[in-house]
User: Which sequence fits this backbone?
């Protein structure tokens, strides 16, 4: 792999961006709307199956006056009649100055209103990030939309592996994006799966199943992929099992201690939470009536350091249930507290259960 490259921005309008790397002179011109990128063909072909296929394809003609439109299916990179989502790329088989290849943007017919030309086009910005990953240059992600745009573009140009490998460093400088994950976790979950990025996948998974009463994978129509839904269901089921065991042990403890008053109060409160008197005997532990919040209930047990009537909390699974498994989010969130009052943040998944083959290096 080439050493870290120096990226030279030629002017303030960013109409020309040159990516440089020692010993690898730019020989490809890629014009994305009104922004032109100069890059090296060897690096492009090394990290992109799309450019390996099309830069030196057999159908390229040698006449400088002939243009060939390269279309590819967004899933496979193979030639088809489908135009790329943002625009098709026209390859001119000619030497442009010292450039061996020159690619320019061609806006699809009938799509002018959708993709109008502007000086700071977001697609050009995403393409710059895509090339930054190839050249091992730092970049950041500031929104969920930017992540999905970058992922879709990397998928189209068959560059998912290099984006995945460079994303970890990018996420360290993307706290605004990290703060947004819980607002639309299923979208991030899907993008992370496509990128096969374990850290981001696990981070999104925590939020996909976090809400105990209304988990995102059940409420959000975004998660249609059956394999990803199966992962979410299984992880949510594991949390539900711990909740059931903990609740059962608490009830068994009260029963063994002869605390029938507490048990009756708890049972009536669950059945009819609107009646305040139903909660009298367990008021200390259920502070969020009338809606019963199990995360808050367990948190109160830990906070009070014991259950009433000398019932031991040692055999419970509360430390596992109340654990925060978020890695990227450094906000110090606590299950059962604040905005996470109804959330468990303990979701986890082992490497062998990830929905992709970790031994596959090109996808």
Assistant:
């Amino acid at each position: 792999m080439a050493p870290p490259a120096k990226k030279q921005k030629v002017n303030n309008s960013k109409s020309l961006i040159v990516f440089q790397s020692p010993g690898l002179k730019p020989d490809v011109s890629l014009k994305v709307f009104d922004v032109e990128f100069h890059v090296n063909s060897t690096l492009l072909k090394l990290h992109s199956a799309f450019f390996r296929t099309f830069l030196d394809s057999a159908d390229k003609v040698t006449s400088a006056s002939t243009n060939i439109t390269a279309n590819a299916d967004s899933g496979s990179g193979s030639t088809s009649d489908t135009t790329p989502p943002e625009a098709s790329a026209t390859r001119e088989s000619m030497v442009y100055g010292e450039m061996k290849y020159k690619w320019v943007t061609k806006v699809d017919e009938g799509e002018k209103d959708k993709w109008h030309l502007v000086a700071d086009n977001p697609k050009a910005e995403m393409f710059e990030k895509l090339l930054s990953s190839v050249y091992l240059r730092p970049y950041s992600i500031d929104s969920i939309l930017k992540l999905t745009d970058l992922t879709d573009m990397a998928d189209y140009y068959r560059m998912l592996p290099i984006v995945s490998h460079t994303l970890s460093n990018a996420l360290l400088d993307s706290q605004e994006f990290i703060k947004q994950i819980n607002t639309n976790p299923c979208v991030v979950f899907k993008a992370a799966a496509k990128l096969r990025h374990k850290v981001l996948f696990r981070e999104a998974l925590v939020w996909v199943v976090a809400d105990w009463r209304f988990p995102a994978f059940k409420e959000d129509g975004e998660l249609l992929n059956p394999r990803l839904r199966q992962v979410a269901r299984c992880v949510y089921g594991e949390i539900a099992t711990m909740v059931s065991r903990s609740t059962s042990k608490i009830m068994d403890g009260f029963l063994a201690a002869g605390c029938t008053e507490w048990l009756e109060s708890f049972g009536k409160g669950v059945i009819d939470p609107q009646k305040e008197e139903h909660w009298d005997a367990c008021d200390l532990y259920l502070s969020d009536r009338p809606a019963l919040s199990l995360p808050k209930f367990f948190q109160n047990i830990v906070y009070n350091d014991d259950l009433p009537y000398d019932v031991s909390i040692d055999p419970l699974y509360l430390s596992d249930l109340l654990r925060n498994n978020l890695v990227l989010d450094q906000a110090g969130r606590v299950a059962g507290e604040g905005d996470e009052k109804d959330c468990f943040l303990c979701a986890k998944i082992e490497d062998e259960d990830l929905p992709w083959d970790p031994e596959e290096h090109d996808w």
User: Anything to note?
Assistant: The two ends are 18 Å apart (CA to CA). The chain has two domains: 6-115, 199-363. Confidence is low (pLDDT under 50) at residues 6-12, 60-97, 113-120. Residues 199-363 form one domain.
